[in-house]
Amino acid sequence: MSEFMMFSLVPLTIAIIISMTCALLGNFLVLRRQSLIGDAISHVALPGIVVSFLITGSLASLAMMLGAGVAALVTVVLIELIRRLGRVEGSAAMGVVFTSLFALGVLLLEWHGAGGVHLDVEHALYGNLESLIWFEGTGLAALFDPVALADLPPQLGRAAWVGLLVVAFVVVMRRPLVLASFDPDFAASLQARPALVDLLLVTLVAVAAIAAFEAVGSIIVIAMFICPAAAARLMTNRLGAQIAWSQGFAVAAAVAGYLLAGEAPRWLGFEASLSAAGMIATVAGIILLAACLFGPCRARSGSAQRG
Amino acid sequence: MPDSRLGKAVIASPLAIQGLTVSYDHRPVVHSVDFITPPGSMSAIIGPNGAGKSTLLKAALGITRRLSGEVRVFGRPLEQEMRHLAFVPQRSSIDWDFPARVIDVVGMGLYRDLRWWQFGARRLRRRAMESLARVGMEGFAERQIGQLSGGQQQRVFLARALVQEADITILDEPFAGVDAATEAAIIEVLKSLRDEGRTLLCVHHDLATVRDYFDHVLLMNVRRIAAGPVDEAFTEENLQATYGGRLSPVQLARLIESPIEVRKEEAGQ
Predict the structure, then answer these.
(1) Which residues contact B144 (CB under 8 A, 6 or more apart)?
(2) CB pairs under 8 A between A and B
(3) Tens of pLDDT, residues B200-259
(4) Do A302 and B149 touch (CB under 8 A)?
(5) What does the alpha-carbon distance between residue A202 and residue A73 come to, in Å, rounded to a whole number?
(6) Among positive and negative, which fits the CA dihedral B153, B159, B164, B170?
(7) Nearest CA of chain B to the CA of A88: how many Å?
(8) Could you tell me which of A202, A248, A197, A204 has the C-alpha nearest to residue A227?
(9) Alpha-carbon distance A114 to A105, whole Å?
(10) Exposure string (b/e) for A69-104, b if CB count within 10 Å is 16 or more?
(11) What is the 3-state secondary structure (H, E, C) of A59-99?
């Protein structure tokens, strides 16, 4: 029990919170056919963090988050510029921007060598979920011990705050968000400010991606923005139900992925364990595959007649 | 208060467009168009493809940015008086696979009546159902919107506008891709709105039905060609100017004669 408290409670909780947060926003990205934006923003966090490290020379969380935030902003602006000046589709502009910036980040990292600091491509992709150890978490009593609680890894608190922020955003803004996603012109005619809603959504996607990036790496973020929401869409034709399904899938992927990463290799006779982040993303993908094959709402019977 | 220098027609009009210009990439798509929608009228905006009809509507509603020009609602600036307007976008402009039921879409028209902490009130649901009944869709309230036919989708869009109880309803090609029965049903609802003293402004494509459906017309092709009561503005000369001389004499003859006379002639032959 104390082993679980010390080594697994915090990573598992963070994985669940971040999965649910990303999946919640993912519902709206999927409905707007903007799933790629989550992918783009979590990729450019890498060059952002590298540049902030080169400038400040520190890996303090604040500097990292600032760097990632600036990079996200630059990305959104670049995508918009390329879309308008090059007159290409939004997804094409996104694809160009985030792959180039991510590649730039990898080059910067290798070129600088980052002096043995714990900052490398693997870290960026998989995060360091397993290293979030709660040393004071020696037993159930620790949950009620202020001293022990103060020793909780700070990533947990950050993930929780970001999760709350996203939930508050979706609850308060649910009507403008649905309106702007469904029919932006009509939303504008009601003065529901669809452009502002778009901007807020992208901003929160960036905040969630960056908070998640630090703790769990970008693989989970990308998977969670897309897989649970896309799978949920195939389960129901009601938005409320879709959001509920996506949250259930996110929790299932986080828990199953985390446990499998620790246990699966042992079943096969290996002593090592697998990357929890990688396994969680894989489980999310398998859930989506299952929904694609067996989901009840896969048929698109009455799609709009274009005319 | 309305500006005292404005004309009486502007102050009475639920949507007065003056000198409206919109341009994309330095190319004007709508150039200095004026149209003072007469209150209680059923007005059509007519013009060829690419004439800027939809753009004019969107700019007049503040959806598309206008380069210059003024839009007034009962003499006041548009931005303060948007609640008087209801907009029915082109049916093809949205994704009908969106996970929503018919009643959810109609409920979107009640956006201004609900604060974020309120979950749909029963009174508002009743209003949404009444609007659906008016377009003959009350039996479809719980239906997923993707399962509707084109005509049914258009009626749901109309119901969403009805629920707003606006003074002027602005429709972008409401008859595009709907069958004759739906078209008749929609025009019945629009006429009943006009009979209540409300105003309707419609982008319209079918020149043959202009005389039957509308009392006022704006002919445009980037610029305004003509505007006014159908009898005065919907003339051969103006139509040729609007369509760049691409209408055949037979087409024109049929359009300009009142439909009843044409039918008489056909019966006589």
Answers:
(1) A237, B99, B100, B101
(2) 96
(3) 999 998 888 898 899 999 999 999 998 999 988 998 888 888 988 777 777 777 776 655
(4) yes
(5) 10
(6) positive
(7) 15
(8) A248
(9) 12
(10) bebbbebbebbeebbeeeeeeebebbbbbbeebbee
(11) CCHHHHHHHHHHHHHHHHHHHHHHHHHCCCCHHHHHHHHHH
Cβ-based contacts of A181 with chain B (< 8 Å): 98
* pLDDT tens, residue by residue, A124-140: 666 777 778 887 777 77
- Per DSSP, the three-state class of A121 is helix
Which residue is associated with the tokens 């509920």?
A244
Put simply, the answer to whether B111 touches A192 (Cβ < 8 Å) is yes
pTM for this structure?
0.86
Six token digits for residue B213: 């459906």
CB neighbours of residue A13 within 10 Å: 17
Single-letter amino acid, residue A47: P
Tokens of A252: 């299932």
| Torsion angles phi and psi, residue B15, rounded to 5 | -155, 100
Q: State the complex-level ipTM.
A: 0.87
Q: What's the CA gap between B61 and B83, in Å, rounded?
A: 11
- Per the CB < 8 Å rule, is B101 touching A238? yes
Q: Name which of A15, A283, A3 is nearest A127 in CA terms.
A: A15
Mean pLDDT of A211-236: 87
Facing residue for B92 by CB, picked from A242, A302, A304:
A304
What is the per-residue pLDDT across A252-285, written as a single tens digit (0 to 9) for each? Answer: 999 999 999 887 777 777 777 778 888 999 999 9
d(CA A162, CA A211): 7
DSSP characters over B56-72: HHHHHTTSSPPSEEEEE
Which residue's structure tokens are 């792959």? A99
Does the distance separating the beta carbons of A239 and B100 come in below 8 Å?
yes
Inter-chain CB proximity B97 and A300 less than 8 Å: yes
Token readout for B265 is 């002639």
Residues of A in contact with B105 (CB under 8 A): 182
Listed in order, strand segments (DSSP E) in chain B are: 16-24, 27-36, 42-46, 68-73, 76-77, 85-88, 168-172, 199-203, 216-221, 223-229
pLDDT number for residue B258 = 54
Q: Which amino acid is at A81?
A: L
